[in-house]
Design a protein that fits this description.
binds glutamine, Amidase signature (AS) enzymes, alpha/beta, 14 helices, 460 residues
């Protein structure tokens, strides 16, 4: 049997090889210096049959989640020297189940971005389409899984930051229901929207990692209990009714690809599907930003230079500064919270509309991203940037759960399909996603239990 130490070495070699080549992916900011020692301990436990549920799984972590002794830089110069003094709750749970942290993954600065280009440590290259952006903000987490630098990873998703890069890098990424995963130890961006979630090479691995990190945590007041039965994830659910989201997408090839996948799957399982238009979805981006600006401004006030060395306004990049200035403006006393409250009202409408829709449908499906990723460094307008999470941010506003799974390619660029289920219905979400994966998985993703193998999983 291949040991955790051997598998770790294969991944480390792969990272090093890419770093030396002209195709630097720039997904990993820091390697865990104790990884080999920790792998040895895990191997001993495996030998004695005492290892936990994540035994030997090798995991990269977005650089905005605290891992004891590693740097949670948030992709920023501001926290460049910040060494985490503790483990986030999700990390504690992973370690308890013998998952191995390989290192910290690159990301947009303070998770503010769409493409992975706002990181102070350089953009992440898309492993599946070199030269294009990997998508953001969990760019390094998704690229690491896609480039075979690890088995799985953790990202955070406030408006699409797990699903967007998962879509562009051809991997699976889950945005859990708001509250189902503890945020304790996540460096917040917008606290009423942030969720930590798993990224993996297939749905079953994403479900496995979610199962470990989920659950109520006294240290996170809004966290909720959440239950999934891992064995049932493999079962194809019956009588599923899909709502196909009717949303204007300029690149029709993307919608056609998704439609085709839905058609094939619905036919195979005798499910039903119907087009559905959501009235408020077009307001999502306009609702999302006042909330993000206000909450981001508030949570960055602690970065005033006294505790962490650098004052954020003096050391951050332009995207973060734009949000701080915007947030400081709309938070001014004379506005009496008007913009924030208006956005909260609009958010309620979006939430209600999703709730109503889920009375009729088991899930909603749409492309994860309604556009193809741009070239690294290419200047695109802010309106074009906003398109990246036009279809993902509504689900952060509604608090429901959503997953992006690979749905094929256009011009050799991976395209993700987003499946959305009602709050706390992760079990059903995984089942539907897994059913799609069985029918539609075109790309042969390497099996995570062996980093050197590109073999197809059974039944695919
Ligand atoms: N692209 C969105 C933003 O920049 C989402 C970021 C995120 O989910 N962290 O705000």
């Amino acid at each position: 049997m291949v040991t955790t130490q051997e598998r770790l070495q294969t991944y480390l070699n792969q990272i090093e090889m890419h770093n030396k080549s002209g195709n630097r992916i720039n997904a990993i900011l820091e390697i865990n210096p104790n990884a080999m020692e920790e792998a040895k301990l895990i191997d001993e436990k495996i030998k004695k049959k005492k290892a936990g549920k994540l035994a030997g799984k090798i995991i990269a972590v977005k650089a905005n989640i605290n891992v004891l002794g590693l740097h949670a830089s948030c992709g920023s110069k501001v926290l460049e020297n910040y060494k985490s003094p503790y483990d986030a709750e999700v990390i504690k749970k992973i370690k308890e189940e013998d998952g191995l942290i390989i290192g910290m993954a690159n990301c947009d600065e303070f998770a503010c971005g769409w493409s992975g280009e706002t990181s102070a440590f350089g953009a992440t290259n898309n492993p599946k389409s070199l030269g294009l952006v990997a998508g953001g903000s969990s760019s390094g987490s998704c690229a690491s899984v896609s480039a075979d630098f690890c088995d799985m990873s953790l990202g955070s998703d406030t408006g699409g930051s797990i699903r967007v890069p998962a879509s562009h890098c051809g991997v699976v990424g889950l945005k859990p229901s708001y509250g189902s995963v503890s945020r304790y130890g996540l460096i917040d961006m917008s606290m009423s929207l942030d969720q930590v979630g798993p990224i993996a090479k297939n749905v079953s691995d994403a479900a496995l990692l979610f199962d470990i990190i989920k659950g109520k945590d006294e240290k996170d007041a809004i966290s909720l209990g959440s239950n999934i039965n891992l064995k049932e994830v493999e079962e194809v659910p019956r009588d599923i009714k899909i709502g196909i989201l009717d949303f204007k997408i300029n690149d029709l090839r993307i919608q056609n690809l998704i439609d085709k996948k839905i058609e094939e799957t619905v036919k195979k399982y005798k499910w039903k599907s119907e087009k559905i238009k959501l009235e408020y979805i077009d307001f999502a981006v306009a609702t999302y930003f006042p909330i993000v600006y206000t909450e981001f401004f508030s949570c960055t006030r602690r970065l005033d230079g006294r505790r962490f060395g650098k004052k954020i306004e003096e050391a951050c990049g332009p995207e973060v500064l734009r949000r701080i200035l915007g947030g400081s403006e709309i938070s001014k006393a004379e506005h009496a919270g008007r913009y924030y409250h208006l956005a909260l009202k609009a958010r309620k409408l979006i939430e209600e509309e999703f709730k109503k829709t889920f009375r009729k449908f088991d899930c909603l499906i749409c492309p994860t991203v309604p556009r193809l990723p741009h070239k690294i460094g290419e200047k695109i307008s802010i309106e074009e940037m906003f398109q990246y999470d036009a279809l993902t941010s509504p689900i952060n506003l509604s608090g429901d759960c959503a997953i992006s799974i690979p749905a094929g390619e256009i011009d050799k660029i991976p395209i993700g399909m987003q499946i959305i289920c009602e709050k706390l219905n992760e079990q059903k979400l995984f089942q539907i996603a897994r059913s799609f994966e069985k029918v539609n998985l075109q790309r042969v993703l390497p099996n995570s239990s062996n980093p050197t193998a590109g073999s197809r999983r059974k039944g695919e």
